[in-house]
Amino acid sequence: MASWIYVFGVITVAALAVIILTGCILALKGPQWWHESGTGLFINSMHLWSVEIFFFAMVVHLWGSSSWRPGEASAVPPGSRAWSAS
């Protein structure tokens, strides 16, 4: 039986896809577009909220998936250093 913690991993990946898509649209259209257009404001808001959801789901998934398995907690410090360095 799968754990619910993996749902947060899937949410993280889905939010990352939305971040990449909306970021490309915003980069191609330019800042003038999302400041003046209602559609641009919506895409900009989707980008912002996707980033918020991405970080929340990522933290919940990483803390949850490493805390309940024995021996997995030893992977957290090197992973945190690698993430901080990137």
Largest sheet at a glance? none
Share of helix, binned: over 70%
- Average pLDDT taken over every residue: 85
SSE order, as H and E? HHHH
Query: Total domains, how many?
Result: 1
Count of beta strands: 0
Radius of gyration: 17 Å
Note the overall shape. Answer: elongated
How much beta, percentage-wise?
under 5%
How would you characterize the overall build of this protein?
This protein is 83% helix and 0% strand. It has four helices and no strands. It is elongated. The model has no long low-confidence stretch (mean pLDDT 85). With 86 residues, the protein is an all-alpha fold. The protein has one domain (5-85). It has helices at 5-29, 31-36, 38-67, 76-85.
Give a nutshell description of this structure.
By secondary structure, this protein is mainly alpha-helical.
Give the tags.
86 residues; 4 helices; 83% helix; 0% strand; elongated
Secondary-structure map:
Blueprint: H1 5-29, H2 31-36, H3 38-67, H4 76-85
